[in-house]
Amino acid sequence: MVAETTSIFKAMLCCRQRKWNNIILDTDTLSLAKMLKEIWDCPWKLAKMTEEIKQDMKHTGATIQHVFREANAVTDLLANIALTQQEAVQKNYTLQIEKTIVASKLAVEKHRKE
Fold it and tell me: Is 32 helix (H, G, I), strand (E, B) or coil?
């Protein structure tokens, strides 16, 4: 959960630097979503970071919502590309992203039917 919390922390930092407001954060980590909504208590080792995230969320009007892992595939792909190949992010990943979008939609539809 440290990696997911760190990702949201960095995303909120980016939003604050760019002065973006009313952001909707999606996470496939239900416990993190509940901690940031103050439904669940936070483990002490994440307390400082989650408090900063919550302050940023209040300041920017951001909200967080839980999404199923299948619905989060595109975001996960883009985050992995950004982390592993920062200068290559600007290259053309259109085909890979489109394939992931299609796979994500199919997975969500399959999940809804179950």
Answer: helix
The domains located in the chain, with CATH, are: 2-66 (3.30.420.10), 69-113 (no CATH)
How many Cβ atoms are within 10 Å of 98's Cβ, its own excluded? 11
Counting Cβ atoms within 10 Å, is residue 17 exposed (0-12), middle (13-18) or buried (19+)? exposed
- Per-residue confidence in pLDDT tens, the chain, 114 aa: 787 888 888 888 888 888 888 988 888 888 888 988 988 888 878 889 899 999 999 999 999 988 887 777 777 776 676 666 655 554 555 666 666 767 777 777 776 676
Rounded distance between C-alpha atoms, residue 78 and residue 93, angstroms:
9
Tokens representing 63? 């909200």
Q: Are strands 63-66 and 24-27 parallel, antiparallel or unpaired?
A: parallel
Q: Whole-model pTM above 0.85? A: no
